[in-house]
Amino acid sequence: MGIEFRITAQDTRSGARTGELVTPHGVIETPVFMPVGTQATVKTMTPEEVESLGATIILANTYHLYLRPGHELIREAGGLHRFMHWDGAILTDSGGYQVFSLAPLRKVTDEGVIFRSHIDGSEHFFTPEKVVAIQEALGSDIAMALDECAPYPCDLEEARTAVERTTRWAEQARRAHSSEKQALFGIVQGSVYPALRARSAREIAAMDFPGYGIGGLSVGEPKELMYAVLEEVIPHLPHAKPRYLMGVGSPDCILEAVARGVDMFDCVLPTRMARHGAVFTRYGKLVIRNAAYARDWQPLDPFCSCYTCAHYCRAYVHHLLKAEEILGLRLTTIHNLHFILHLMEGIRAAIKGGYFTAFKEEFLAPLELRG
Predict the structure, then answer these.
(1) 93 classed as catalytic
(2) CA 53 to CA 364: how far, in whole Å?
(3) Mean pLDDT confidence for 199-218
(4) Second label for 304, Cα 20 to 30 Å away, from 87, 138, 163, 171?
């Protein structure tokens, strides 16, 4: 319900593929990166600016919007698209990761999660059904089922309990979901245990969701372990459905995950890095706040064609950041989002052109040399 997905090209040397995800708010070419608009805004950016960078879908957060301003207010406003003036597609996550990250403030039961607001300490209870109802009120194009994200590291029993809850909650969410304009995705859990990951993938796939999230990764485990988990999970997911690796946004991880068959990504990394004075470049991360760039007249990345790099030098952006001027945060955010979205364009072109492996190796080579 709510979306269609069709594969348009398949790389012959890897699991990489391109596709078209048809939503009520436009057709999204995959592999795709979704900028994060946690509280109905991509930080420092207007919706028009985000769109101009090439974004066709963004992510918003159920937990945060439930607490403030409230899903009923957003429903009254006509839904999230109208409320935030965004014409593209929106995916809302379930809030599960945020709730589970509030370890001292929450209690997990088989029925759901009791938690205290990080804003005012008020107590709330998320059930799979309530999380579906909140996301239906928000009116997103894609909603996520409530899952239990086990921490890393965790023991086998803790991971098994999380898988069993995630499966039960997915069944409950599937039954509760009623919006014909919104697609509900299930989520695979299982920490770094191959047998549990395979079990979770099979159980969630059996429910025939229109798409599948892979959760519980990029939570502290080594990257090679994350790649191994993807290799375990993806063969158990339907080939003709989109696969979404949740919370992953570094260029190297995106390339490796695409090579294994992932279609969708989101992460706060580009915008969070920008706010901390760091930017992506073709040769790795550049901490532009550092004093070394106070008299550097180059653009942030000489290979970049974004607005920031076309008009401003490193010294100026460094000055803005040190002076705590808002423009500095906007310029680094523009650059980082452009960098990731431009990378996704290159990935799609490489898959369609039959040179994805060479593209991946060429992109990763300077990063590996830098270490």
Answers:
(1) yes
(2) 23
(3) 98
(4) 87
